[in-house]
Amino acid sequence: MEKKIRTLIKDSMINKDKVALTTYKSVLENAQKLAKDKKEDVNDSYIITSIKKEIKQLEDLLSYCKDGTDKYAETKRKIDIATSLLPQMTSEDEILDYLTSNKVEKDMGLCMRVLKVKFKDTLDGKMASQVVKKYINS
After folding, report:
1. pLDDT class for 23, splitting at 50, 70, 90?
2. Is 65 helix (H, G, I), strand (E, B) or coil?
3. Distance in angstroms (rounded) separating the CA atoms of residues 65 and 79
4. Entry's Pfam families (predicted)?
5. pTM of the full predicted structure?
6. What is the secondary structure of 24-52 as a DSSP string?
7. What percent of the chain has pLDDT over 70?
């Protein structure tokens, strides 16, 4: 994933796309900081964490921007760019199928732990929580 982002940085420099360039650089810099803090090399896990953090920050910024302004459009585009970097997230059906086929005990904490181990970075915690609640109540 790091190579992909570095390639995207080069492409956005060639195309003179400043919005994409700053987004890609920010993601890579944050991933490098996370890896450096743990004294490890940058890996996909750090990059995905960095992308999610970047998206959250941009969404917070978006809530303060007025709709229709240049800053709003730029922030919205940055969110789209960062979101496109994320791998395909696990769907509700996949989560429910996994829980039912493995007959996981109907306990919220246990289900969430099992899902986090199984799906790691492709799991959306909020969505998984809603699916687990449905599973427990069924």
Report:
1. very high
2. coil
3. 13
4. YqeY
5. 0.73
6. HHHHHHHHHHHHHHTT----HHHHHHHHH
7. 100
